[in-house]
Amino acid sequence: MGGDSIVSHDEDYSLEEDFPLLSSQSSAVLRDNLGLQDEDNRVNGENGIVSGQTSEENTPASSRFDFEVNERNRLGVYQQILQSYDELEVHSKNLKEEKEKILSYIPGAWTEKVHDYDVPKTTCLILVGPRGSGKSSLINRISKVLEDDKFAPARAQDESLFIYLRHSQWIYLFIPDNSLIGDGTYFLKEYMIPRDSTSICLYDTRSLSDNSHDNEDNRIMMKGWMTKGVRHGKLVVRKRDDQRLRKSLKCKTHKKGFFPSKIRKVNFVIYVVNGLSVLKAMENTDALERQYTETIVSTFNCPYLSFKDDKPVLVFTHGDLLSLSNRARVRAYFGELLGIPPTKQIFDIPDCDDPVTATTIMKMLRYSLEHADRNFPQRNVIKDKVRKAFRSLCMILLILVLGVAIALAHNEFIHPCHGPQKQACSTKVHAKRPKLKVHEMHPKIAWHKIRHIW
Question: Which residues form a coiled coil (predicted)?
Fold first, then answer.
């Protein structure tokens, strides 16, 4: 991983010889980063998180070859990450085209044999992550980029604020999880992207707890979202929430006046983490810092968040507060930690208004929507046939009923008296008709008056 010390047997060894495509800027960054760790770095065997490597002197002779291969692989990954930043500069020139592809998206547009799948009207992407990861900030940034309005008011409530001090000292000012300042943490929020569209919606969720005692609560929350669906305005309560918090949240539910909305099935997951917190955990070994990465690993690998073999896409935020070398280190670290390709499935989205950040957002959305389309549930052929047969039968019965009703109405119009009232109706008619005498019915003919006829 980037940040580990590299052991070389050749004094004339140079990075440019092994990696000629590495730019001068990336090479300088790489050299600086490779010198950040010393021989005291080691592998944390307790949780499997790599914080460094031992020096070659302490490495058994039988494993030196494997050690060098692993180091070269890490170096290659780090080089690819640095090159990806250079490629973003090139792709940002086609930002308008990338944006048009997202804006013209409809569910199922990027999948083959779409008729074989149960395609929803709206593709639902859910954002999941620990406290202070920047989920709300990411939604605001996505909305501004797609709507092309940098001065639009924030749609989602931002939960965190970070202030940088000199000498790499950081002060974290964030709204704690048990406060009642905003509802963004406790109530599911739906955001159509863009506002007037019905093709894409993002869901902001309650933050995952980074307390090891709340792992079961995190799992129950994620299971509910992924199996039962998500609904705008739904209150999310954990088992470990105290009674005061529960009572206050219930009062806020009535005050907000949320009306029941449509339940949406989650189609893909965007996992959001704070790159600043991760870097701090990488450079510290105390239990509190390590707990943050342990929460990420356990929740990211939760089977409920995956669609078959597709794990969530990972977005790390607050990269604008880090140097380029540290941003590359964080991506390489996550790639090895979570077993996902860092240049394809991990996206560095800082809090910046520039074409490179906008291009990264478009690429992240494109990846998420393509994988959502790929994992739509397949249609049940037998169930569809039974449904079609039932509909056909209902149509036939409806036609028969209408035919009988029309026939009876026609018969009633021609013969108004029928059934039990037929005799009474006939008697009434005959009673009104005057009886004719016999001579009126057959009058006599005066033959002598018409004799001249013949």
Answer: none
Q: In this structure, are strands 313-317 and 346-348 parallel, antiparallel, or unpaired?
A: parallel
- Find the helix or strand (DSSP H, E) in which 315 lies: strand 313-317
Spatial contact of 50 and 337, defined as CB atoms under 8 Å apart: yes
Structure tokens at 145: 């980029």
Cis peptide before 377 (omega within 30 of 0): no
User: E strands of 133-267, at which residues?
Assistant: 160-164, 170-174, 189-192, 200-204
pLDDT digits (tens, 9 = 90+) for 346-389: 999 999 889 999 999 999 999 999 999 998 988 775 666 677 77
- 217-230: pLDDT as tens digits: 899 999 999 999 99
CA dist 257 and 269 (Å) reads: 28
Pairing of strands 268-274, 200-204: unpaired
Specify the DSSP element, H or E, that contains 103: helix 95-103
**Which amino acid does the sequence have at 343?**
T
Nearest to 314, CA basis, from 133, 452, 147, 144: 133
Task: State the DSSP string of 247-261.
Answer: HHHHHHHHHHTPPP-
Q: Using one digit for the tens of pLDDT, what is the confidence trace for 174-233?
A: 333 333 344 446 889 999 998 888 999 999 999 998 876 778 889 999 999 999 999 998
Cβ atoms of 174 and 185 closer than 8 Å: no
The separation between CA 61 and the C-alpha centre of its own chain, rounded to angstroms, equals 48
Q: Where do runs of H (alpha helix) occur along 287-441?
A: 287-300, 324-338, 355-374, 381-414, 422-432, 438-441
Neighbours of 396 (CB within 10 A): 10
Instruction: Identify residue 93 by its one-letter amino acid code.
Output: K
Contact between 341 and 333 under an 8 Å Cβ cutoff? The reply is: no
Say how far apart CA 169 and CA 173 lie, in whole Å: 13
Sort 26 into a burial class: Cβ within 10 Å, 0-12 / 13-18 / 19+.
buried
